[in-house]
UniProtKB/TrEMBL annotation:
Any GO molecular function: xylan alpha-1,2-glucuronosidase activity
Residues annotated as the enzyme's active site: 289, 368, 396
InterPro entries: A-glucoronidase_C_sf, GH, Glyco_hydro_67_aGlcAse, Glyco_hydro_67_C, Glyco_hydro_67_cat, Hex-like_dom2
Name used for this protein in its record: Alpha-glucuronidase
Annotated coiled-coil segments of the chain: none
One family name in Pfam for this protein: Glyco_hydro_67C
Domain Glycosyl hydrolase family 67 C-terminal: 448-671
Residue numbers spanned by region Disordered: 64-83
Alphabetically ordered keywords of this record: Carbohydrate metabolism, Glycosidase, Hydrolase, Polysaccharide degradation, Xylan degradation
PANTHER family with a match to the protein in the record: ALPHA-GLUCURONIDASE A (PTHR39207)
Keyword Hydrolase carried by entry: yes
Length: 674
């Protein structure tokens, strides 16, 4: 449907190469459905001015000559530039668009740019073909816009197939091997290209025994997936286990400074590239939640990352080394260890020690993808390191795709955060290593389990392309593309249920930045003390007098001092700390008056009542759209709203009852608390 505007018209495709073929195929498909004609520049083509749309790869930037070898590999390989999205005005992925004398002209200097230009025309719809349009250029802010799939090949006994997956099984793996039928993967690649994503890691960062073999004897299966993704400009990456030389190579050590180990990796990487010449690189979770790593050998994480970087460098690959390193076997009695501090403590001292093709991949918050966290201080602390920001599109802690929680505003806030680094850059500019999201997609017919969770995927891709874009404008794009014939009533309804959904979720779950009041293990639903006496380092310290974690430098764990000024000072004092993060940084009495003028406990009661009411209201709005949405789509969302409303009430009643019982302070408005 969304291709209708292109389909009805005459298009000239000018360029050669596999991604140009993809562009041609897209336009031809649209013409087959909606009429129109597509011509490839050649003997039969007329003058450009006789077409409605010209899609051209300009000669100067080096276009179509792919040379010998695998289809498309040349173009994608040339994207591997370190950090910069390519040279020239447009780079390999940018494009220019203008309209004169009745012809819309898209020019790119690389084939991927042409593909993105086509999708831009599709987003513009009929507007792409109206009046005149002065030349404007578009190019991505960062060269790497990536999805990490936490997919297992084998179905894991506890986690299922996709770790923290809420959209069915894996798109890539089925019955213990790569899917034979890759049509759906091709459709996925197309969908991702349409929102600007250009890299995928195809397996879980917790690398189990079966999945370890993807690196070596099962690389052919990865190559099949890579071949399917390639025509849409997407490079394939793999999560690998740091212990691979032992578990796959039969060596006695995985010490990153051991010559035999280094040799083993060099050879393993060489074989990977002979199967997948445009292979993107590795994602590594090391010394984290039980995964092996360099600490075993008394080596640093720079030693570990650099060993892999050296092996990948000759082939243009990158190692994504995750900064999610902390003690997950903490004694809850120990108040001096603070999980929030861990990534900074481990990695800030290593600034400047990482190889050029090593990227430090940092979660946006210091803990673990909670509904509210401060921005990680790591992001401002390593100016001489290529850092990537990792967000979680899969809704592990934000309703597991049974609740509506559009994360655009949260991500946008994090990307606009200004850590006051010396160069005064925002997080989005500091993220020279790219933007990464943990994927929220599976083999579910609606892709994301909850159909409205598609908005998170789309928003992530578009924010990765342009991190300062207004997320609400992106949401409008998603609405227009998903419902091309949407009436204003439908668009308004979708905005009403999505816009505030993150804050609604925050209201009925964990208050004021406290986090982790979830049921242990699967993390769905409330359990205020579920993690309070656990080894995971995720405590709220509620007692009869108050709640929160003292992370000040003066009397607490010192985490607040990991920020530069003015943030360190702002977070240090309960008086200046923003309300929404108060309990993240401070332990305060229930009667503490927030900047909003309310006491902490009254804020807890009020937000929980409000949040549950907002969920009910959203369900009502959705029910009113039944005549405007395809029935199966509507029914799936409606069914999930039943669960969301039930869940929101459960959260409200458990959290409110817990704090009434702890504090003994009644609700100022006398509502029912149990
Ligand atoms: O949020 C936690 C999840 C784990 C995950 C881990 C990580 C893949 O609960 O399931 O493991 O983060 O990011 O590595």
């Amino acid at each position: 449907e969304t291709f209708r505007p292109v389909g009805g018209r005459r298009t000239l495709v000018d360029g050669t190469g596999p991604l140009v073929d993809t562009v041609h195929g897209e336009v031809a498909y649209a013409c087959a459905q909606f009429g129109g004609e597509v011509v490839v520049r050649g003997e039969k083509s007329d003058a450009s001015s006789s077409y409605d749309l010209v899609l051209r790869v300009a000669e100067a930037g080096g276009s179509g000559d792919t040379g010998p070898g695998l289809e498309g590999v040349g173009e994608l390989g040339s994207l591997g530039g370190l950090g910069s999205p390519g040279d020239g005005e447009l780079g390999a992925e940018g494009f220019a668009i203008e309209r004169t004398d009745g012809t819309t002209i898209v020019t790119a200097s690389g084939q991927p740019g042409l593909l993105y230009g086509l999708f831009h025309v599709v987003r513009l719809g009929e507007n792409a073909f109206r009046g005149t349009r002065a030349r404007e250029t578009h190019r991505p802010a960062t060269a790497l816009r990536m999805l990490d799939h936490w997919d297992n090949v084998a179905v894991h006994p506890v986690m299922g197939q996709v770790e923290r997956g809420y959209a069915g099984g894996s798109l890539f793996w089925q019955n213990g091997c790569a899917r034979q039928e890759l049509e759906r993967v091709r459709a996925y690649a197309r969908l991702l290209a349409a929102c600007g994503i250009n890299s995928i890691s195809v397996n879980n960062v917790n690398v189990h025994e079966t999945e370890a073999h993807l690196l070596t004897d099962r690389i052919g299966e990865v190559a099949d997936i890579a071949r399917t993704l390639r025509p849409y400009g997407i490079r394939t990456h793999l999560s690998v286990t740091f212990a691979a030389p032992i578990v796959l190579g039969g060596l006695s050590t995985a010490d990153p400074l051991d010559e035999a180990v280094r040799g083993w990796w060099a050879e393993a990487v060489r074989k990977v590239y002979s199967a997948i010449p445009d292979f993107g690189g590795f994602v590594v979770k090391a010394d984290s939640e039980g995964q092996p790593g360099p600490f075993t050998y008394g080596r640093s994480h720079a030693d570990g990352a650099n060993m892999l970087a050296v092996a990948l460098a000759p082939h243009g690959g990158t190692v994504h080394w995750r900064a999610f390193v902390y003690d997950h076997r903490q004694d809850w009695r120990d108040r001096s260890t603070d999980r929030a501090r861990a990534a900074y403590d481990h990695f800030a001292p290593l600034d400047g020690k990482f190889a050029d093709n090593a990227v430090l991949q940092v979660k946006h918050g210091p803990m673990d993808f909670q509904v509210r966290e401060p921005v990680s201080p790591v992001l401002g602390a390593l100016p001489r390191t290529r850092v990537a920001v990792e967000v979680q599109s899969t809704q592990e802690y934000t309703g597991q795709q049974r609740h509506v929680c559009w994360l655009g505003p949260m991500w946008s806030e994090a990307l606009r955060f200004h850590p006051e680094s010396e160069q005064r850059l925002r997080v989005a500019e500091l993220a020279r290593g790219g933007l990464v999201a943990v994927a929220n997609v599976g083999d579910d017919p609606f892709w994301t389990g909850h159909p409205l969770a598609q908005a998170n995927l789309y928003t992530f891709g578009r924010l990765a392309w342009q991190p300062d874009a207004d997320p609400h404008r992106i949401l409008d794009e998603w609405i227009a593309l998903t419902f091309p014939t949407a009436s204003e009533r439908l668009a308004a309804g979708l905005r009403a249920v999505l816009h505030g959904s993150w804050r609604t979720y925050e209201k009925y779950t964990a208050p004021l930045g406290v986090g982790f009041m979830v049921q242990p293990g699967h993390h769905y639903g409330p359990s205020v003390d579920g993690y309070e006496y656990s080894p995971w380092g995720t405590y709220h310290f509620a007692d009869r007098d108050g709640i929160g974690v003292d992370r000040s430098a003066a009397t607490g764990t010192g985490y607040a001092a990991q920020y530069a000024k003015p943030w360190a000072e702002l977070f240090e004092s309960a008086a200046s700390c923003p309300d929404e993060l108060l309990l993240f940084f401070h332990h305060v009495p229930y009667g503490h008056v927030l900047r909003s003028g309310k006491t902490v406990v009254q804020h807890i009661y009020d937000t929980h009542f409000e949040g549950a009411e907002e969920a009910e209201e959203a369900r009502r709005v959705w029910a009113g759209l039944a005549d405007l949405v395809e029935p199966a789509w509507h029914a799936r969302v409606a069914e999930r709203y039943e669960e969301q409303v039930r869940g929101a009430r459960e959260w409200r009643d458990q959290v409110n009852s817990y704090f009434l019982r702890k504090s003994g302070i009644p609700d100022g408005r006398g509502r029912t608390i149990y």
